[in-house]
Amino acid sequence: MSSLPVSRMSRVSRRRRRVAVVASTALVLTGLGSTAPLLAVEASPVDPEVVEVELVRTLELDDVGVVDPFSISASADGEQLFVAETSDPASIAVVGSMETEETRVPLAEPAAESDDFALDAASNEVLSADDYPGDIAVDDDGTVLGVSDDQLVTVDSDDVGDRLDVSLDGLLAGPAAGLAVDSAGTIYVGDPEGDRVLELDPGGTPTRILDLRAAGVGELVDLTVAPSGDQTDDPAELSLYVIDGADAETDQRLVKELSIDEPFAAAASIPTDTATLVQSLDTGNGITPSSPDSAGITWMSTKNRLVMADSEVNEYNYYAGVNLWGLSNARPPTVLSTGTTLGWSNEPTGIAFDAANGRIFTTDDNRKRIYEVSVGADGDPGTSDDSVIRSFDTTSYGNSDPEDVVYDATHNWLHIADGSNREVFTINPGPNGVFEGGGDDIITNFDVDVDGVRDPEGIAYDPVTDSLMIIDYRRLVTAEYNVGGGLRRFVDISASNGAHPAGGTWAPASSGSGISLWVVDRGVDSSSPRDGQLYELSVPGSGPPPTPQPDVDVAPSSVSFGPVQTGATTDRTVTVANTGTATLSVSSAATSGSGFSVASGGGSFTLAAGASHQVVVRFSPTAVQSYSGALTVNSDDPDEASVVVPLSGEGVSEPTGSGEVVLEATYSGGSSGSES
Fold first, then answer.
1. What pLDDT score does 374 carry?
2. Torsions phi, psi for 425 (to 5 deg)
3. pLDDT in tens, 194-233
């Protein structure tokens, strides 16, 4: 797009400069005349509803050269943001809503942060206020509104209907910080000292107070209102775009998109399970080289290791040529290999592995691309023998923010998380078997925002349950879906005490049994602290079932025959059971010790899962003395291959009591086996 000419600029000393936006290809700067006569209207004595707004995304405008914004506005369709910044006062940056710079509007005179202007879509003009000392905005009809101190007024002199003169006394905690009007005439007035935005209807009656604190807004500098940046949303769905002068985490000046809808409440019918923290690894300080912004992770079965990607480390002065780490799944994980994606991408926000074809897939949310890369003969990603097979533009099918990717070997599909649009896209490569982002690919998608997932940054596929686990950057709650988009459950991962989970994968647990959900956390994104983390989480009901195994159980655990007359015999029954899930093979069941023998049921035998077998043990004393021995059962039980049952008895010369042969023996109950 060519630069947008601006002419006829008039200046006035202001407290701060503000922007109200239009979409235009030729902008003209004009001055406003004196304020028109006003019709005074007192604000209605109502108590506006307080609504806590949520952060949708932080726009990374520094990637397009906008580093110190002080004024913002948006085109009516939300496709363009107009941003003034102190670092380049000679122009206004025109930025695509998906964080791509389109052009700059040159200014006849350098702007100062004390200036104010508005862009009028109706007249295709840039307006400057000569006589009005506050912030201005222009509605769809070209009416110019202004707010100064505690008054909201109509500023322009054209006869465009009823005039506003609304007292905001008591509704603002300080001087207004921004003014915007949406297409329905709803008015938004920024209140920096209260970290909130006052919403008024077209007649000036306060309707809601939008509380910005939960979104991490530390100092409201300016605001505008425009359609949601989610390209899959209804165009009528609006967001606030604000300049935060002191972000609560980074203390930097950032542009943020905020949802002004009511916060999501999860349906009571959707179950929530709670994950248990197994271990954590400080990737920022606990490994070398450091990973301060760990963003993606996958399991590389051919190397028996985790592979972690960092999308920001190359921007720091301690970058050591590494943004990929091969990590053991031990306790604690150790670095087994390193690599770099800079040969094809400097922003690897996500990574996936296809073992059958020896390839990885990485997402790049700056270039909006997915790269398919062969790992070469050494089998390690990010080394010199890697080669890019192909890449494709994700915006071609509507994915404007590819944050993570997972390869689904069950169906030969890719599943991709779109952070800005809050969607999951699935790509079936079609008849030619090639992932192209178009062509004969079959591409479907489902919305996760409706289920409260505000920023899907990570995605993990479980082949056993054929499900997708979506990692939410904004909340310590993940959401599990079937591959068709049906919500199955939420999983609370707050045990990690994480800041911003960014990626996840299912991989073998460090215990050596079962699988865990391994999650990487970016901490404070793009910040100087080295605060990346890796968490291993045990999630109920996830992963492959245990390998079927036999489990021997022998009862009773000991047998005492008591006194038995010499020359007589007494039998007792011992039960061998298989309480496991696979066939048990018993190689022998035999006695040891004088006076004891197996009357029946000994030797070798097999037991199906749940089956049992009786072994009859006989005591035949030949002398007056105490006897001890054992019944030993040998089997293929993996953790109890041999079970020993102690045997005891007493040989006597005469019958006890009435002279009858004792046929009863006492023994302690219970099982000598332990369940696997």
1. 97
2. -105, 140
3. 689 999 998 888 899 999 888 888 888 889 988 887 777 7
Q: What is the DSSP string of 167-214?
A: E-TTT-SSS---EEE-TT--EEEEEGGGTEEEEE-TTS-EEEEEE-GG
Contact 213, 194 (CB under 8 A): no
The answer to whether 351 and 414 are in contact (CB under 8 A) is no
Place of tokens 């919500």: 487
For residue 288, with 0-12 CB atoms within 10 Å meaning exposed, 13-18 middle and 19 or more buried, which class applies?
exposed
- pTM recorded for the entire structure: 0.65
- 3-state helix/strand/coil string of 330-395: CCCCCEEEEECCCCCCCCEEEEEEECCCCEEEEEECCCCEEEEEECCCCCCCCCCCCEEEEEEEHH
| pLDDT one-digit tens code per residue, 261-293 | 765 555 567 899 999 999 999 999 999 999 999
DSSP labels for 90-112?
TEEEEEETTS-EEEEEE-SS---
pLDDT at residue 563 above 90?
yes
Which distant-in-sequence residues (6+ apart) come within 8 Å of 607 by Cβ? 550, 576, 577, 578, 583, 584, 586, 613
- 461 and 506 Cβ atoms separated by less than 8 Å: yes
**What average pLDDT is seen over the chain?**
82
Q: Which residues pair with 631 in a beta bridge?
A: 591, 645
The pLDDT value given to residue 19 = 32
CB 535 within 8 A of CB 502: no
CB contact at 8 A, 339 and 381: yes
- Radius of gyration of the chain, Cα coordinates, nearest whole angstrom: 36
Q: Which two structure tokens, joined as six digits, stand for 170?
A: 């008591």
The alpha carbon of residue 620 and the mean position of all alpha carbons in its chain are separated, in whole angstroms, by 70
The two tokens of residue 48 are: 């506006």
